[in-house]
Sequence to fold (135 residues):
Amino acid sequence: AKKRACKEIGISDVSTDYPADVTQTELLAKIAEINANPVVHGILVQLPLPAHIDEQAVINAIAPEKDVDGLHPMNLAAVSTTSTHGGGRLPWENMSKIPFPISCTPQGCVEMLDRSGVPITGKKAVVIGRSNIVG
Fold:
């Protein structure tokens, strides 16, 4: 679905598919290669990874500026310390002015509430199935 969506909006997709028995060394080497490639602007590693791969090591290996999911520790820190909605809302009208990648799912939820006029100040929310991407 992600490959199809890229094609539909004109994003070049440079995919590398691996079998489930890929080694962590192979995967990290590919990420290093892509990090160094100036033609590639974003890296998305499809999670979850096989059990024998250290997921955090893979996420940490992605250059923060190419981290499409916003899961690199530097990007998580940025989103945790920057107002992403409300009074200090980021400039969604010009995405190039947002200084770091933000995980799409939670920000999409906030944006949907914002655009629909639903006030969230003082509300309580329950997140079921928390993960680094959704939670």
User: Anything to note?
Assistant: The mean pLDDT is 83. The first helix runs from residue 2 to 9. DSSP finds five helices and no strands in the chain. Helices lie at 2-9, 24-36, 55-61, 73-80, 104-116.
